[in-house]
Amino acid sequence: MNVTFRQLKVFEAVARHLSYTRAAQELHLTQPAVSMQIKQLEESAGLPMFEQLGKKVYLTEAGKEMYSYSRNIAAQLSEAEDVLEQLKGVRRGHLDISVATTANYFATRLLAAFVSEFPDVTFSLDVTNRASLLRQLDMNEKDLVIMGRPPDEMNLDTDMFMENPLVVIASANHPLAKKRKLELAELANESFVIREQASGTRIAIQRFFTEQGIEFKTSMEMTSNEAIKQSVEAGLGLGIVSVHTLELELETRRLAVLDVKQFPILRHWYLVHRHAKRLSPVAEAFREFVMENADNFITRPEL
Ligand code: PGA
Asked: Which domains does the chain have, with CATH numbers?
């Protein structure tokens, strides 16, 4: 097969957008130029990569296979560019990171502090849940990921850098807010507002209650920590969240942290990337910066 990088690049854009028009816009090409590259690729592969039904473009079986390879090749090429930059000793460039929904409470502060040391660095930040972070790691899409404990079986490089305690919260006027040294069993009749299935916090909570042999009732499921805190404040139930999410609410006493004997559930934050990945100079500098400075830039409320 005689495929050129240019054809692969064009193919990757069309496959990602499932649109010739949008791929052409992104690559600053005309639409006929895009169609021509795809036609040549299909001729050289001997199989169609796309099919068009009405106005919609779909990947064929061969197209799907090609897409997964072309993404890897694109990632490798960008890694190669980064490594060459490294050889030039350059400490500027772009940092593409993803963080767990909960880590967003401190990630922007860390990035701001980093950029004040490396003003020529630009970055993009994706905030998403654990399941989606694991998919991004699998596809090698990001320079670095900040998340809760990653799974052992994924062949990742992980650096633990800070504690992430999970605590039980209630509205400030909840009857349990005044009690001391609550037993976990005393929470069995309460209902909890919790995060979605794909959240790391949710998985940790479920594992904890299973280990303790206690059932916990859930009343509502939400995809953001903000929504959970507001529901808890409105009296819709108890919540279990990371202390990182609570800075403002504890300061203004809008929420109370319950004094439950078995709490906090102690988790940690990790900086993660695929084992085989060569970090760009900027990513390596950020990794070192986080490992050395995280504690100075992240304030955690006193419990
Ligand atoms: P989450 O992840 O925001 O998806 O809950 C946080 C964590 O893994 O601790």
From this structure: 5-71 (1.10.10.10), 74-162+269-297 (3.40.190.10), 163-267 (3.40.190.10)
